[in-house]
Request: fold
Amino acid sequence: MSLDFTYNKYTEIIEAISKSDYEVITIRDYIQLTDRPHKFIIIRHDVDLNPYEQVKFAELENNYGIKTSYYFRYIEKVYKEEIINKVFALGHEIGYHYEVFTKTKGDPVKAIELFSEELKNFTDNWESKTVCPHGGSFVDNTDGYSIKNMIKLIPKIFSGKTIFSKYVNFDLWDKHSFKDFGILGDAYRSIDFSDILYLSDTGRSWDKKYKRLDKVDSLINPKFNIKSTDEILKIIKNHETDKIYLLVHFEQWKDNFKDWILWYIAQIIRRNGKKIIFRKK
Reply:
C-alpha cells in the first residue's frame, strides 16, 4: 500500500476514473443537465490556500480528458488571476468560493452586497455560473493551516477561546435567490445528495467523524465507512455505487515526505482542537 494523500495517489484516482464507465460531470453540468448520466462522478476542488498547487492537478485531469470544478476564495493569497486563467484554459469550471458572512461578521446586508461585488469578478472573467460556501475559517487566521500556526492555537484551544468563525456562509441563501445574481446554483444547495456517495478529504481524512460542517443528507453514505483513498479506488474500480461526489483540497496532497508529515501533524492538531472546542459547547 503506497502512502496516502500524495500526488501519486491522486493520479491513481484519476487513472481509475478514466478506465471506468463513470462519466465525470461538473457542478454546472449537474444543475443544467435535464438527462443526467446513469453513472457519474462529480469532482470538486476548493482552493483554500496556495493556488499555485492547483495547476499541476488541473493539467493531470486535463491529460486524462477529465473536467472538474474549481472554487477559488476571494482573498489576496488565493485569488490569483494568472493561475485561475490557466485552470480555466484547461477546460475546468471556475466558481466563486464565498465567505461573505465570515468577512462581514454575520451582517446580512453587508454580506449580500459583498457577495454581489466579489461574484462579478468570477462571472466577468470566467463565465462562472455556480458558487460554493467556504467553511471552517479561523477567526483571526484566514489563510494558514501550517503546523506553526496550529501550535500557536493550542493554548487558545485549551483556554476555551473562540477559534473558528461562528458564521455559516451557507446560510446566505435562507433569504436570497440564486436567480437574483444570474447564477445557476450552489455546490451544496443545488445537489440532491440522497442517492450520491459524498466523499470529502477535509482535515486530510475521508473519515466522517472528523467532519463538522462538511456533511450532507445522503442515503448512500451510511453504507460505506471509508478511511483511505485505496477504499475509494476499490469502489470506483468495482462500480460499487452509481453516483459519487468527490471533494478534494489539494493542500492535503503532498509530493515530498517532509511536507507530507508536517501537514499530517498540523491536521492532527486541528482535528483534536475541534473535538475539544465542540465538546465544550
Q: What stands out?
A: Residues 139-143, 157-161 have pLDDT under 50 and may be disordered. The radius of gyration is 18 Å.
